[in-house]
Amino acid sequence: RIEELRYNTPPDSILLYQDEKGPIAAKTYGGPSWCSTQSKIEKSQKIKGILNTFGVYDYTNDKMYTHCYRNKTSDQLIDFIKRVDSRYNSSIKTIFVVLDNASIHRSKKTRNAIVRNYPRIVLVFQPTRSPHLNLIEVRWMWLQRKAINNSTFRNESDIGKVVSDWTCNYNNSHGSITRNSLHDELMCLFT
């Protein structure tokens, strides 16, 4: 069903891939040893905050939307879904959201809230052990490589700013050609 939606998204519909990244701790992160700007990492770091990034990749428009939360529960997922739903006007009749089988995605609380409050959202669950079907995964890898590695975060605000800046940069610099090459890169990672 996921591949079918990817290649044949119905008119007046949108296809989103959702996942969470984190927790991301406020500390110093290293990076590849070949990187020209290596951060010095102490063995024991005091963590000064943690954030979880919720995100959707809008396959139809090749855009990302992210929001950071301190926790990763059904309450945050429902709030995130509300934010995602509000981004699309009434001309979009169905919003297909592809997601993995995490407990917060499958909980009764989440499913009931979506059915009750967001009738145009249709949850499409990936088969287990199939991260290659969720096209946001390669974008999380890019976030890690381009924004988190070799960085020092003093607090949660620093994390949120870096995630927000990366999201804006992604949305300003990517198009449909990138979408196809990113999918090929994702397939290489999981095969």
Q: Roughly what percent helix?
A: 40-55%
Spans of at least 5 consecutive residues with low confidence: none
User: What is the assembly state of the chains in this entry?
Assistant: single chain
Structural class: alpha/beta
Beta-sheet strand percentage?
Answer: 15-25%
Radius of gyration equals 17 Å
Please outline the major beta sheet: 5 strands, mixed
Number of strands: 5
Distance between the termini: 20 Å
- Provide mean pLDDT, rounded: 87
H and E string:
HEEEHEHHEHHH
Shape descriptor reads globular
- Order of strands across the biggest sheet? 3-2-1-4-5
Please count the helical segments. 7
Report on this structure.
The protein has 191 residues and is of the alpha/beta class. Helix content is 41%, strand content 21%. It has helices spanning 2-7, 74-86, 103-106, 108-117, 136-148, 156-173, 176-190; strands at 13-25, 50-58, 63-69, 94-99, 121-125. The chain has a five-stranded mixed beta sheet with strand order 3-2-1-4-5, with helices on both faces. Strand 2 and strand 3 form a beta hairpin. The radius of gyration is 17 Å and the shape is globular.
Question: Which features does this protein show?
Answer:
alpha/beta, globular, 191 residues, 5 strands, 5-stranded mixed beta sheet
